[in-house]
Amino acid sequence: MTIQSSATDAGIDPAGAGAVETLAALVVALHRRSLDERVVLDLHLGDRSGIEIVDVPNTGTFAGLCGRLRAHGGDSVSGDTPEPAVRVVLPGTTPAPSTCPVAELLPNGDGIRVHAGDPAEGWDAAEADLLADLVGRVLAAGRENPRVPVTRLRLTRPGEPAFWGTPDAPVPVERLETLIARHAAQRPDSPAVSCGDVRISYRELDERATAGAEALRREGVGPDEVVGLFAERSAERIVALLAILKAGAAYLALNPDDPTSRLAVQLRDARVRLVAAEPAFTDAVPGGVATLPLDALAPPAGTATGSPTPVAAGPDHLAYVCYTSGSTGVPKGVGVPHRAVARLVRQPNWVDPRPDDVFLQLSPLSFDAATVEIFSALVNGGHLVVLPPGRVEPDRLRQAVREAGVTVLLLPTGLLHYTIEAKPDTFAGVRHVLTGGDVASASLVRQLFASHPGMLFTNGYGPTENTSYTTCWTSDVPPVTANVPIGDPVSGTSVAVLDEDLHGVPAGVCGQLYAAGDGLARGYLSSAGATADRFMPHPDVPGARMYRTGDLVRRAADGTVVFVGRADDQVKVNGYRVEPGEIEDVLLRQPEVAQAAVTVQRNKNGAASLIAYAAPASADADPMLGARLRDRLRAELPAYMIPTAVLVRPGLAITPNGKLDRQALPAAHRYPRNVWNDYVPPTNPTEIELAETWGALLGVEPVGVEDDFFELGGHSLLAAELMAKVSQ
After folding, report:
1. 47, 151, 157, 578 - which has most CB atoms within 10 Å?
2. What is the per-residue pLDDT across 86-96, written as a single tens digit (0 to 9) for each?
């Protein structure tokens, strides 16, 4: 494909397009593809050769860019040479091998031909053609609107739809407990849930949950009421969850590791008056909220008497409430209806669940990956194996997968990466591996396929507000590009990539992803303003809504969606969504802190860790202020939101417009000890070697012989990696 053909399609005479305008269109196309404000070109244009960097400001126009390129080009480069986005050559030049694409100017500067680069870098022939098409679109739009900022040029053609996918569920939507009850009638003795020595059939699951629902109704629980569920992983917790749904209510999973103050915020926001709790957690339920023993919702088999009381609840009533990190400092409760879950797991287009499948349930119930694990299994008649309470250690995971004969395994991205590297035989016998929650490593996914050819792999993407998954890339062959795609819209979901003016953009252009359809949550509890801000009127369907995800993506030449980044500061840590502003809010409420910032750093596999920076309010700050602040964060925030380190600095840089300059925050590869105990140095070769191993893994110095691994910022995955290094 050439600019000539693209421009002709758009009704523009390409004869007047000179080399400078063509080069400007190429720069804009590369900018719109990545949103990088600096485009690096490798020019081979006779006297004008070498690496040039072209700045593309958000307010810059096509005419202005052409003028700059005509006058003096971009900035030349000295010193280290940046990686170019594209090589530009004269007509008739035979391009030398290159990892980046090669753009060949056509005679008279009236077009361009793009030669493919390295497919592993995302530049196969189809992507090269897509770039040529995009340059043609930019040239046409820029010539028609030369004074419009290049970031706002309309690049779609008449008739090109913004949304694609299927917004309606593939089959009539029903409540989840109704779908599960069918298996109790059709295959009553088939295993439904097991955990350790406990094994529950579909008949028993249905009967026990029915009895539990009657207990809730006696407490006055009804449709759309939210009931707290405070328990560790167990088969009984699944029975209790189903009992809550059978009562017409919604469940709110409470995390035993969360501080009491955070639990209180959630219970108050969701207006919970009753919590079903295991005995060990009853005393941790904040005051003013009644408790009911978990056993009351999961009574022994044979407890149910007579027919269950009918419930006036439908698929648009709430199924559960899930709390996510809030940028304003307060967690947000997302209300998810039955319709949204049913569209995800009933006759899905991203997974092929079978009645003989065995699913492992290991995600925290307060994490929306648990929705996928539980309901993909039970709605489709599969066997849900619940990992007993305790840390999800890699060796324990491997044993559980083998003993249970797990066939469908969902792992958060960080755990998936580590398991592929350190325990690849975990996947023996697994026919379908799923992941989500963070950016998957393409090289490690290729490694997984190399050791287990023929398996299915799904890379799932989606915010809680669109119920676990919005798009999925499912394949039985490894990815060939540098990034694992996030795929296509799941059943009952349509998506669009829109620019800042809410106009659709063509394939190859980066924009923000919007989701619509049956997967949308009802909104945020007790926050009409936040709901209106993120759940917006659908531009094409009267009365419908779309959700603004905040994620930047582009559509590849094959139609799949590729994740690019975030439009805000939100990050993912171990699969959990974290708003740095919520952590900063806690820090700024401390009288000793004048400024605060939280950033994320990533290791070689992309795993994220949080680093906090705090500027003290006085010059004579406590030398242990970092440790003191970490303790206060622990008192208010869940474990996954606690920074690896709190670095105390005299002051944090400010931009000219008065905002915190996050780009100026120093990178921290080694952190000071944010712990209370005194430093006790290692004294023998073994202790010295272990301290160095700990320090390298945790990024902490110095490490003392009496230090606690988890107090220094370690977590279960790092602990497993540590044990592997020590055993070597």
Report:
1. 578
2. 888 877 776 66
Q: Is the pTM of this model over 0.90?
A: no
What digits encode the pLDDT tens for the residues 629-681? 988 999 999 888 988 888 888 888 887 777 778 777 776 655 555 555 566 67
Looking at the DSSP bridge assignments, the partners of residue 513 are: 497
Residues ≥6 apart with Cβ < 8 Å to 154: 141, 145, 503
Measured between alpha carbons, how far is 610 from 584 in angstroms, rounded to an integer?
A: 12
How far apart CA 426 and CA 582 sit, in angstroms, is 37
Assign 280 to helix, strand or coil. helix
Q: Regarding beta strands 38-45 and 86-89, do their DSSP bridges make them parallel or antiparallel, or are they unpaired? A: parallel
Determine the Cα–Cα distance for residues 241 and 365; give it in Å rounded to an integer: 10
Question: Cβ(284)–Cβ(260) under 8 Å?
Answer: yes
One domain for residues 597 and 656: yes
Q: Output the CA–CA distances (angstroms, integers) from residue 446 to 124, 185, 724, in the order listed.
A: 18, 42, 22
Domain membership flag for residue 326: no
Structure tokens at 284: 């941790």
Output phi, psi for 697, to 5 deg.
-75, -40
Q: Which two tokens stand for residue 479?
A: 């990815």
**Residue 218 exposed, middle or buried by CB count within 10 Å (0-12, 13-18, 19+):** exposed
Q: Give CA angle at 44 (42, 47), nearest 5°.
A: 125
Rounded to the nearest angstrom, the gap between the alpha carbon of residue 638 and the centroid of all alpha carbons in its chain is 18
* CATH number of residue 691's parent domain: 1.10.1200.10
Boundaries of domain holding 705: 685-727
List strand residue ranges (DSSP E) for 273-391, in order: 274-277, 290-293, 318-324, 332-337, 358-361, 383-386
Judge whether 23 lies within some domain: yes
Closest to 202 (Cα-Cα) out of 210, 167, 648, 73 = 210
Say which residue the tokens 């690096």 belong to. Answer: 40
Task: Classify strands 250-253 and 318-324 as parallel, antiparallel or unpaired.
Answer: parallel
User: How distant, in Å, are the alpha carbons of 320, 335, 375, 463, 523 from that of 316?
Assistant: 12, 11, 17, 19, 12
User: How many structural domains are present in the chain?
Assistant: 3
